[in-house]
Amino acid sequence: MADVFRALDDETRRLVLDELSARDGQTLFEICSLLTMRHGLSLTRQAVSQHLGVLESAGLIVTERHGRAKFHYFKPRATRPGHRSMAHQKEDRTMKIALTSLFVDDQRAALAFYTDVLGFTKRHDIPLGDDFWLTVVSPESPDGPELLLEPSGHPAVKPYRDALAEDGIPLAQFAVEDIEAEHARLTSRGVVFTQPPTDIGTAVMAVFDDTCGNLIQLIEMKPDENHPDAR
Q1: What is the pLDDT of residue 111?
Q2: Ranked by mean pLDDT, which of 3-7, 124-128, 162-166, 205-209 comes out on top?
Q3: Please, what is the Cα angle at 109 between 108 and 111, to 5 degrees?
Q4: Are strands 215-221 and 172-175 parallel, antiparallel or unpaired?
Q5: What integer pLDDT is reported at residue 176 of this predicted model?
Q6: Same structural domain for residues 208 and 104?
Q7: Strands 203-209 and 215-221: what pairing?
Q8: What is the phi/psi pair of residue 152, to 5°?
Q9: Per DSSP, what are the bridge partners of residue 126?
Q10: Domain membership flag for residue 90
Q11: How far apart are CA 152 and CA 106, in angstroms?
Q12: pLDDT digits over 51-105, tens only?
């Protein structure tokens, strides 16, 4: 019981519990973002992770790993009869991709490249300790999926990206309507393409270096010959 009182004797941990009770099953990055946006707390992910550890040790939250992601749950709700984890709850719903991420060597340089050169629009730029919750969106879909430009400080990131880059494997794919025009535009801006526009049958694709540690693929899909609009 002393662990519970100790865990609750901290405003930040109480806010974390409030957020999990409002929406269960959140990742560390989501919790950090909510603490910053809703409560004005600029904490490092390490600090928030330590708070989560105290709450888990006190039995107030539980964690579940699904693939590479780790989700945190408010335990009183998780121990109710018939409770199902977030992964199982989603089975009965239509999933939507709200956010995906790329690790970048320098968040400020990445923001400049992805907005000034590629043409995306900044959506969020929220301090999180030494890093930022930094996202961009397509200007045509300002409320659509966000791309998180995530710091690459984790020791697993470098060998993972180096291995993909050595084999020429892109880490993301962006769709364009005219790949030849986009290739010309980006080349004029100094972007280096590791693969020029290449016809692969159903689409034309190209690959460039984003200057932030990643290879990115562009793709222009060809019209479906069987679609009524193509006739």
Answers
A1: 97
A2: 205-209
A3: 65
A4: parallel
A5: 95
A6: yes
A7: antiparallel
A8: -105, 30
A9: 133
A10: no
A11: 8
A12: 999 999 888 999 988 777 788 998 754 444 444 444 454 454 577 788 899 999 9
Non-local CB neighbours of 77 within 8 Å, separated by 6+ positions:
21, 24, 83
Is the alpha carbon torsion for 33, 30, 103, 186 positive or negative? negative
**The one-letter amino acid at 21:** S
Radius of gyration of the chain, Cα coordinates, nearest whole angstrom: 21
Q: Are 39 and 22 in contact (CB under 8 A)?
A: no
CATH of residue 161: 3.10.180.10
Shortest CA distance to 123 belongs to which of 108, 113, 138, 112? 138
Q: Which of 82-91, 103-112, 159-168 has the highest mean pLDDT?
A: 103-112
- Give the span between the Cα atoms of 79 and 62, in whole angstroms: 10
User: Taking the model in full, what pTM does it have?
Assistant: 0.63
Question: Are 109 and 76 members of one domain?
Answer: no
**Whole-angstrom Cα distance, residue 52 to residue 28?**
9
Q: Residue 25 is encoded by which pair of tokens?
A: 């099953």
- Rounded to whole angstroms, what are the CA distances from 166 to 6, 49, 162, 163? 49, 33, 6, 5
Question: Which two three-digit tokens encode residue 43?
Answer: 């904490």
Its domain, for residue 114, covers: 99-230
